[in-house]
What does this fold into?
Amino acid sequence: MKRILIIGGGFAGLWSALGAARKLDEQNKSAEVEVVLVNPTANHSIRVRNYEENLEDTLVSLADVLDPAGIRWIKGEVTDIDPAQKCVSVRADGNSTSVSYDKLVLASGSQLAYPPVPGLAEYAFDVDTYAGAKRLEQHLDKVVTSGDAGSLTAVVIGAGLTGIEIASELPSRLRNIAVRRGRPLNGNTQVRVVLADRTPEIAAAMGGAQPVIEQALTELGVELVPGMQLQAVDSKGLTVADGTRIEASTVIWCGGMRANPLTRCIPVEHDALGRVPVNSYMQVEGIHDVFAAGDVARALFEGEHASVMSCQHGRPMGRFAGHNVVCDLLGLPMLPLDIDWYTTILDLGPWGRSTPRAGIVSWPRRGSGRKK
It folds into this structure.
């Protein structure tokens, strides 16, 4: 039996697996080709919702999605890829095994990038993963209850989509925890949320949506600190390059992403984000039997716009990769990637639930305030 192996159970990986299974079913080849997906956990994480207070609805069982489609899945971590031998190393339950493939789809996603700032990796929290978001949840409950100095102060560093969304949620979230824990809020104990970024303007990359975002954050009571150069982070706050000190029990890092390190196993030239180049069929340039989708892949639209690390691009990239990897295996014509839109909706917390939300629409990154 032939095998299509998919690495990653995120948006791109999940849709790659389902796209492949669907095409095999259409061709009546499901009994001749198996689709296998490898993921470190037994769940698909709706990663873009990790800033939310209630995290339970952000996990989707892989078994519930993949089993009905006849897709075999392995709970394990891929630690190495050998394109020459067409196999990967998988670590599961403390053991390492080799899994061969005829065709591979790399869809292992991205991870938060940490610059070498003293104390940042050690003391900062994040919402990059479900585990990281749960750790933040437990921390907030603990520090708010403690009543220590700075316990109601949180600093979010990085004013991209994730940073803006968690900063928008934090004022009400911290107040709700304080109320649940019987901690009165008065003139001496007030919630303070700071959103900082090194750019000269908060949400500068959001195009025309920037004024809407700034208005929302200001009305929510979030302090905006553009042009900040972070010097160090410790257990009681952070220090800025000019010597300014911000006392805070919670520092959340949202400073950007890089492609999963597994891309280093693919012997091609990577871009600045660590992504591998793919052609219009989602094949890695120069490596016939390896496809890539989502945050690990750099695809071009209209010959000039590089794909964005987002679920809006990851899902269709996955669908095309899954379809085309089957077509390539069976000798059928492949379909070129076609995404004729680019829309990102940004959650602005309580402000956005009663007023227009901010959106980034199409190329170039034009912005607007629009009803969702």
